[in-house]
Amino acid sequence: xxxxxxxxxxxxxxxxxxxxxxxxxxxxxxxxxxxxxxxxxxxxxxxxxxxxxxxxxxxxxxxxxxxxxxxxxxxxxxxxxxxxxxxxxxxxxxxxxxxxxxxxxxxxxxxxxxxxxxxxxxxxxxxxxxxxxxxxxxxxxxxxxxxxxxxxxxxxxxxxxxxxxxxxxxxxxxxxxxxxxxxxxxxx
Amino acid sequence: xxxxxxxxxxxxxxxxxxxxxxxxxxxxxxxxxxxxxxxxxxxxxxxxxxxxxxxxxxxxxxxxxxxxxxxxxxxxxxxxxxxxxxxxxxxxxxxxxxxxxxxxxxxxxxxxxxxxxxxxxxxxxxxxxxxxxxxxxxxxxxxxxxxxxxxxxxxxxxxxxxxxxxxxxxxxxxxxxxxxxxxxxxxxxxxxxxxxxxxxxxxxxxxxxxxxxxxxxxxxxxxxxxxxxxxxxxxxxxxxxxxxxxxxxxxxxxxxxxxxxxxxxxxxxxxxxxxxxxxxxxxxxxxxxxxxxxxxxxxxxxxxxxxxxxxxxxxxxxxxxxxxxxxxxxxxxxxxxxxxxxxxxxxxxxxxxxxxxxxxxxxxxxxxxxxxxxxxxxxxxxxxxxxxxxxxxxxxxxxxxxxxxxxxxxxxxxxxxxxxxxxxxxxxxxxxxxxxxxxxxxxxxxxxxxxxxxxxxxxxxxxxxxxxxxxxxxxxxxxxxxxxxxxxxxxxxxxxxxxxxxxxxxxxxxxxxxxxxxxxxxxxxxxxxxxxxxxxxxxxxxxxxxxxxxxxxxxxxxxxxxxxxxxxxxxxxxxxxxxxxxxxxxxxxxxxxxxxxxxxxxxxxxxxxxxxxxxxxxxxxxxxxxxxxxxxxxxxxxxxxxxxxxxxxxxxxxxxxxxxxxxxxxxxxxxxxxxxxxxxxxxxxxxxxxxxxxxxxxxxxxxxxxxxxxxxxxxxxxxxxxxxxxxxxxxxxxxxxxxxxxxxxxxxxxxxxxxxxxxxxxxxxxxxxxxxxxxxxxxxxxxxxxxxxxxxxxxxxx
Lengths: 188, 798
Description:
The structure holds two protein chains of two kinds.
Chain A: H1 3-11, H2 15-22, H3 26-35, H4 40-59, H5 69-87, H6 105-123, H7 127-138, H8 143-149, H9 155-179
Helix pairs in contact in A: 1-2, 3-4, 3-5, 4-5, 6-9, 7-9, 8-9
Chain B: H1 2-15, H2 21-33, H3 35-72, E1 82-85, H4 100-119, E2 126-131, E3 137-140, E4 146-149, E5 154-155, E6 166-173, H5 176-181, E7 187-188, E8 191-192, E9 198-205, E10 208-209, E11 211-212, E12 219-221, E13 232-238, E14 244-251, E15 253-254, H6 271-277, H7 285-302, H8 319-331, H9 333-345, H10 364-368, H11 374-379, H12 381-386, H13 390-398, H14 411-424, H15 436-442, H16 455-467, H17 470-478, H18 484-493, H19 500-503, H20 514-587, H21 612-623, E16 627-630, E17 637-640, E18 642-649, E19 657-664, E20 671-673, E21 675-676, E22 679-685, E23 690-698, E24 701-707, E25 715-718, E26 721-722, H22 725-732, H23 739-779
Parallel strand pairs in B: 18-25
Antiparallel strand pairs in B: 1-12, 1-15, 2-6, 3-4, 4-12, 5-11, 6-9, 7-8, 9-10, 13-14, 16-17, 18-22, 19-20, 19-23, 21-22, 23-24, 24-26
Helix pairs in contact in B: 1-3, 2-3, 7-15, 7-20, 9-14, 15-20, 20-21, 22-23
């Protein structure tokens, strides 16, 4: 399966097969992380985040790969691990630089930290909240439909619930940001 | 609040691109000027990204599991896979032998499960196959489950094997997502289970469910990332709430594959190599076997008794205590030294715990307490008997007046032995090695097809030898229906940490029908006892024979010595009297010979003067040297003359026994010429006429040479000729000799013959002991452990 085939599979409904295939790149990341004070679990989290980024990107019609998928995933993991090491105060460890880096890496990484914090904030919400937000923002289902399927009185109730969920998520996100201020990327 | 809600609404719309260009531009302007709004928008953006993430994550996680699973897949097909006894897995095909009611219950549950999986819409991938039940069938599912269906596995209600094609349906939910989808909660009672996957098998003929012959179970191999030892097989039971509860956990294990037991090696490590090193044929299994088994006799001889565990299972409870007690005993250094001394000095006639040629030795010290000196008794019993000790004489009479051979042992060593024998007969027994009889009991065809007949067990057998603990072997042999790994853990608890590495391998067992394990347990118990008994009896008979031979030899030697010394003192007295008579004659004294002294050293010489002559004669006779005595009163001089003679013979060293006798004709007696510095030299008394006879034994043949009337000077060279007793008799007989003297001399030749045989016996014994002791350390790895080499012995030597 070529990289391009993988991307198009990620785009369509057959992403499972493609993702399984992509895990073949995990061991390399594991080696890198474990050689630099990390655990296998760290590597797995890192790699899965990278997969999600790639998956998100692939859904974007305009996305084109500037390098191989392997490099793309590895570069994301490497840079984020470097960041993690800095955050842990291990400045001495400088990870080996890559000969080529994906051209959108900067942008990806800039968002990465905040988005992963946001995900953590959202994971802390109840199942209903998550379901509601997913349906509303991703599946773009009308509020009325959502209200029915998750057992809310009507559109108004759904809207209020959505607001409350979002507010809660934002509150948690803010506090996570404050905790991890070292790692907070500077936005212009 | 209202305001903020509006702002969020705006930000939402902005970020989702729902605003038109004008509104969007206006919002951007507001953001630039309003930090709060900008922050809100940023947060909103991050949260939106987070939501996307959240939605994508399950797919990534699911892929991870498949990836891990896929990684494992290529390993299937090797011999070691997790095998599950199919009967009882998630409501499999109903078990045969159940009542009709129970069967219909089970099928009801199966139906519900089927319905359950159907309503999920996506459903579990159902694999449907028509199989021919007359053949072995193996199927592999998309998720890698391997199902092995032996021929004739399916039976109808009458218990007859089904011949029509069987419709086999399989559902599998290996992946967590599939499990959730199928609505299968992994709960067992109130406990949440980590699952390694679930599967369902159904078999039908013409729409009717069929049973599985319990003697031909299906085997399902479930792929798993790693063999987690905690993983168990649960049975799914549908509860009233429509939830599957997982019950009756059974451990999973690697099945063992039995091989031909005679191809395995259960010998102690290094045994065959040692046999080869001792230049015996190590490739002849019949020889190496019988040699090894014979050491069971040695085991019975030296090992502590009372060690054999009772056959019932309750003994395992006290295992740890026993193991501790034993290791504490065995650690004592003196104990091993005692065992060693006992084995080398006492074991031919004694056992610690029971009577043999001599009495059981345990408690001997206590019995002697206040009754006599046990040290003196052990060192030299004959001497101690003469002291008139009452208890010693009582023992002597009680044990058929058999003499205990003297022992060259120090008091400290005797202490070691006595401590050993007291401890040896106590039930918490000591370590030496594995009783070969116990190994013999399991190492035969009878145990083919059991755990014992596996390479896995053979590996353990080597380690079992190293533990020197028979209870470890018992544990494996008595629990053929248990997983090896389970037994490994028990062995670890018995204090043998080395078995932890076996326990971790999670080796299972060879499945046996329930009654077979029981039957084999009995076989083992009975056989190991029988073999041990035979070996013990053989060893004891052998020991007793040896002991008897030793004792007879000892007795015979003593008898001979007593006779010889009597004869010699008689001869001395005769010679002394003859000398005295001659001297009295020369001095002109009347012949009034004093009463013959009782022995050379007990001549009463208390009265100097008159007895001066006698004294001089006695000295000359004793030292066999010439004498010249001048009497003070008469002025006469008397002389006695001794002249040396040397006897030579060809091939002197080729004889195993050699005796030279001088026969002074005037005395009707004989005198043995001792060999000194490699030659036979003696001084001849000029008063007598000597004949010479020489006899020797070589390879069971008597040789002899004689010379009549040997001259009193120089040397004589004899040439030995093969002869027999009759010729010898004719050879030595002279007119002056009495018949009994001739018989005495001839009897000496018989003693020589016996001496040669005895030497051969001792030689063979030594050789045998050398050979066996070379093997002892290999056959019994703990034998001699802690027995110090002589030079570093901390014990006083003598």
